[in-house]
Write a structure and sequence with these properties.
By secondary structure, this protein is an all-alpha fold. It has three helices and no strands.
Amino acid sequence: MSLPIPDFDHLPLGSVADRIRALDLDQLDQLIAHEQSMGNRLPVLEVMRARREQLEQGAEPSSGGQDVHPETGGTSHGSPVDPSGAAEPGPPDRHGLRQVTWGG
């Protein structure tokens, strides 16, 4: 069975949220069933269920695209972590005994 979004199982949450905007209700239902039987990623299911509710209330598929990649980097679970935002490393730890000053 071919899914309406290529490589769906490996997309981070932000990409899923963007891409499902272009789907109709039947296509979205197909993805929800697939996710429930395969990955069962709760955040992904929540986003898809929220979009399904929007479609049921009259929303139309919009400009979400299948070739849009809003996230660069990140983790396989959808975290927008970017290594360039990491703190600079501090000085190396000193080896030996630490001098302790006791107040009196």
